[in-house]
Amino acid sequence: MNKLPFRIALRYLKSKKSHTAVSVISAISVCAVAVTAMAMVCVLSVFNGFSDLVSRNLSRIDPQLKVEASQGKVIANADSVIVAVKGVDGVRMAIPTITDNALAVYGDKQQPVTLKGVTDEYGDMTEISSLVKSDGSYLLEMQGYSFAVVSVGTAVALEAHPGYYVPLEIYSPKRRGAVNPAIPMTAFRKGEAFISGVFEVEQTEYDMNYAIVPIDFARKLFDYTTEATAVEVALDAGADEAAVRDAVQAALGDGYVVKDRLMQHSNSLKMINVEKWVTFLLLGFILIIASFNIISTLAILIIEKDSSISVLRSLGADNKMITNVFVAEGWLISLTGAVAGIVVGVGLCLLQQYFGLIKFSADSGTLLIDSYPVAVAFTDVLVVLAIVALVGFLTSAVTAVAM
C-alpha cells in the first residue's frame, strides 16, 4: 500500500462527516477497540503480577537448588551425591531430605500430612526459624527426643499446639514385609514426635498440611537407611545460580535432575501462564466482535463518500487503490482505538501498582498483599498492539473488498 491511499484515509478520518451518525458510529468503533485493548493490557498485567508474586515468595523455605533422581522416587546413596555436589564451585551447603506422605494423629484428631525429614543445617539454609509462631520454636531434636514443626493448617486440623506432654503420632504404610490381615495396624510403621512449633509461610502448598521432622525420624518411619528423596543445595553469596545449576548437573550426569526455585514450582507458574493466555484468547474473541463495528463504519463511510469515489475514479484511481483507501481507513480506526486503549490500560496498571486502588475483598491480614498485583510487560503491550492491528486489518480488508 503506497502513501496516497493512506493520506486520503487519514483525511477521511479527520474530516467532518456530512451526517452526525457517521461520526458517532466511528467514535463507537474506536471506543470498542480501545476498551478491549485496555482490558487485554490490564488482564495480562494482573497475571504478570501474580507470577512475580509467586516468584518472589519462593525463597522462604525452598532451596536454591534441588537435586532429584531422574527415575524413581529416591536417591539411593545420598551421601555420594552430596560429596559430588559440594565439589562444585559456588556450593555452600548440601543436605539430604526425605519427603513423603503420612498420617498424623493428635489425640482424637487425624490429618494426612506431607512429612519432610531434614538435617540440622536446614535451619541455616532456609528462613524456617523466622516463620515459626511466637509460642513455639524451631527445634527438631533434644535429649534423644524427636520434635516436629508443623504448618498452621496441620495445627488447626489437629487442634494441636506446641507442648511436651501429648506426642504427635505419625503413621506410614510399610513398604516391605508381610502384613497380618487380622491386625490392620501391623501394616503401618509408627513414630512419635512432640510439637515444638507452628510455622506459616503464606503459601498454600506448605501451610495446608506440612510437617518437618528430623531426617533420622523420617528414615526410620519410611524404612530408609542412606536414601533421600532429594538433596537440597545452598549457594555462596553472589554465586551465579544458573551457572552453578549447570555445573552441578554436569557433575552428576543424566541420572539426576537439578532444579532451581522456579523449576521446583513450574506447575504453579505454568498454570498461571495457561490461565493468562486462555483469558487473552477470550478477550481476543471479544475484540473480533468489537471489530464488527468497523464493518458498519466502513459500510456507511463508503456510502457517504460515493461522490468522492467518483472523483477519484475520474482522476485515474482504479478499484485496487479505492479499496486500499478504505482498508487504510478501517486500519486507522483500529490503531487509534488500540493506542488509546493501551495508553489508558498502562496508566491504570501503573496507578494500581503504586497506589493499590483495587483491594482484595478478603481480610488483608490473612494475605501477603492487600491489593491486586500488576506488572506491565513491554512484550505483552506489543502482542496486544499486534493482535488489534491484525484483526483491524483483516476486518477492513474483507469489508472494503466486499463493498
From TrEMBL:
Looking up Pfam families in the UniProt record yields: FtsX (PF02687), MacB_PCD (PF12704)
| Family recorded in the similarity comment | Belongs to the ABC-4 integral membrane protein family. LolC/E subfamily.
Coiled-coil zones = none
What protein is this chain from? ABC transporter permease
Stretches assigned to the MacB-like periplasmic core domain: 26-250
What region holds the ABC3 transporter permease C-terminal domain?
Answer: 281-400
Q: Where in the cell is it found?
A: Cell membrane
The residues that cross the membrane are: 21-47, 277-303, 330-355, 375-402
Q: How does it sit in the membrane?
A: Multi-pass membrane protein
Q: What's a single GO BP term from this record?
A: lipoprotein localization to outer membrane
Note the superkingdom of the native organism. Bacteria
Q: Which GO terms describe its cellular component?
A: plasma membrane protein complex
Chief place of localization: membrane
Keywords in alphabetical order, please.
Cell membrane, Membrane, Transmembrane, Transmembrane helix
Tell me the organism's taxonomic lineage: Bacteria, Pseudomonadati, Bacteroidota, Bacteroidia, Bacteroidales
